[in-house]
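Session log. Operator J.P. requested a structure for one protein chain; no other inputs attached. Running the standard single-chain path with token output.
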Amino acid sequence: MNDSRMVPVLSSPRKVAWDREAPQVHALSHVMGCQKDEARTVYRAFQDPLHRHLLHKQNLEHIIPHVQKMLAREVKHEVSGLGGEGNSWTHLKLFDLVQRHIYVASAEALLSPVIARRELIPAFRDMNRYFPVIFAKFPRMFFPKFTAAVDEYVKIVSDPKYVENGSELVKIVEGLEASSPSKIRVNMMMLWGSIANSAPAVFWMLYYVLKDKNGAYESIKREVDRVLGPSPDFSVPLTLDKLDEMVEIKSAFHEACRMQFGAFTIRDLLSDYVLDGKIKEDTGGRPKKFLIEKGTRLMGYSGTQHFDEAIFEDPFEFKWKRFAPNEKGEAPRFKDRNGRPLLNASLAFGTGPHSCPGRKFIWYENTAYIALMVSLFDLRLTEEEKCSATPGIEKETMGLGIYYPERDVSIELRRRVR
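Structure written below.
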């Protein structure tokens, strides 16, 4: 592995148990400030309604049109600042653009318009930037920007107008049997969870597509034109079925997430386990067996799978059609080093019962956003950006999900002429 972010599975003994709920409960209590004696109870009570709300198609058929209207409204801000069609290119920063749109649209559709304001984005950035160090139990006194951001959001969510104008999800939280301070912290956790990974995921997808030299941007644009027709009307939201037809966008999104997802999966073993390797050592000897004792904490890094050349051909290259169905409509199949089929080749949204409850929301939001952008604009990297290396990753936010770029990317856009 030639990527400095690649690490093997780590293990170490710990005295404090770390079950599958522990990371979320710790984030809710220690980072957001939920009362410790309520954090786990509130988390458990909220999980079933949260999953039902964000995963059931009938709910998504209401939520996704709403988020599309918000995205269309936000993009109009960009259109209104452009000159005549076809000639004038406008210089913008890609991450700043994407985060503005995703923050406002997601926060209003999932939470409340009271919190979906552009002027709150700096506070969100401060809260997100220092989230990992607070999670790691560094003293808050050393991070005044984090404390100020949390205090600002507590004040906003405490406003009765927040709940009065809130989404169905906000009203579900309000109905939980918990104290008012704990409900406020759950709302803040929802805000962080719905945006912290979404904005960088959409950024990386757009960046890789624009950077690609094998025609990704033009191919995706043709797909959007084919699905939407010559004169799309974005005042009418796209149905989920229409969004599902844009398989190249979804594939490119999964590919970008594969390349830029950096979270650990952390579990404590409940019993002794013998790791019996099936692949022989390079020396040609017998596979080694390892005893991992009960109570050992395992930290599995997703990159060991995402960049495994036995699973993914040319794993360090962006291939926008890697996850797209073939001409027969068959989904791609991936196998591990032992030739066994992988149920989830990409771990960016978790797997099984640990899967992200908002995964379908962001898939649809991203598809709708990309369709909107490539329909309304011509997009390109600046000449300088085309010759620059891919941005590195922001060290402060490593370890919790999709990597943030350490620098923004310069792009140009103009109104598209059909």
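Operator note: The CA atoms of residues 377 and 416 lie 4 Å apart.
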